[in-house]
């Protein structure tokens, strides 16, 4: 067992079995769900996400409702409310979760949306546009014929290509997603 797996096992050993949100919960292996959360969170960390934010995001993703309170997240992850709060702040800033008020309560709930990856990619369009503008300025200031100017221009052309392709890719995804959802609805 790797050190990371051992740490994950240590965190989840004796943890309450609270991953199920509905009647299907009794059919779930809570330990397997907990291991998934930790494994996926570790992969998100490898990709650059903050550790606690990755754990909170994976926990929300693994819940049937996709909605949990800070207390529920803390209980499932065996962490303090402060740790959850910091993670939620980051995830909210990057639009991976949204905050909503629990009806009839002062408690907030945090929701992960099924389209969060699509939305995250769609927002990249604005970032790419800004980068392109800055890179154009860089090419102009360095000179197109200088080695740095050519290198920067190649980066600019890459981002222009990526932005053009991203629009078509997102459209194809929406069509594919709608087809999957229709098939799922038909099966019910």
Write up this protein:
The protein has helices at residues 3-12, 30-46, 51-62, 70-77, 81-93, 116-142, 147-187; strands at 67-69, 98-101, 108-111. With 188 residues, it is mostly helical. Helix 2 crosses helix 3.
In brief:
The chain is mainly alpha-helical and 188 residues long. The chain is 68% helix and 6% strand.
Note the main attributes of this structure.
disordered N terminus, globular, single chain, 3 strands, three-stranded antiparallel β-sheet, 6% strand, 188 residues, mainly alpha, 7 helices
Q: What is the H-and-E element order?
A: HHHEHHEEHH
Distance between the termini: 41 Å
C-alpha Rg (nearest Å): 21 Å
Q: Determine the mean pLDDT.
A: 84
Largest sheet: 3 strands, antiparallel
Number of helices in the DSSP assignment: 7
Spans of at least 5 consecutive residues whose pLDDT stays below 50 are: 1-18
How much beta, percentage-wise?
A: 5-15%
Percentage of residues in helical conformation? 55-70%
Q: Structural class of the helices, strands and pairings? A: mainly alpha
Widest sheet, order of strands = 1-3-2
General shape:
globular
Number of strands: 3
Topology at a glance:
Layout: H1 3-12, H2 30-46, H3 51-62, E1 67-69, H4 70-77, H5 81-93, E2 98-101, E3 108-111, H6 116-142, H7 147-187
Antiparallel strand pairs: 1-3, 2-3
Helix pairs in contact: 1-2, 2-3, 3-5, 4-5, 6-7
């Amino acid at each position: 067992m790797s050190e990371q797996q051992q740490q994950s096992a240590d965190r989840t050993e004796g943890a309450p079995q609270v991953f199920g949100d509905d009647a299907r919960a009794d059919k779930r292996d809570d330990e397997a769900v907990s291991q998934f959360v930790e494994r996926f969170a570790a992969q998100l960390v490898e990709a650059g996400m903050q550790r606690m934010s990755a754990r909170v995001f994976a926990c929300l993703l693994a819940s049937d409702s996709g909605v949990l309170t800070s207390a529920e997240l803390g209980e499932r992850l065996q962490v303090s409310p402060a740790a959850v709060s910091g993670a939620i702040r980051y995830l909210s800033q990057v639009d991976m979760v949204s905050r909503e008020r629990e009806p009839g309560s002062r408690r907030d709930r945090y929701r992960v949306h099924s389209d969060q990856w699509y939305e995250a990619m769609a927002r990249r369009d604005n970032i790419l546009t800004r980068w392109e503008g800055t890179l154009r300025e860089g090419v102009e200031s360095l000179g197109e014929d200088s080695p740095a100017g050519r290198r920067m221009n190649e980066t600019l052309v890459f981002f222009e290509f990526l932005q053009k392709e991203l629009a078509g890719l997102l459209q194809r995804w929406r069509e594919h997603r709608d087809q999957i959802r229709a098939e799922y609805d038909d099966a019910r």
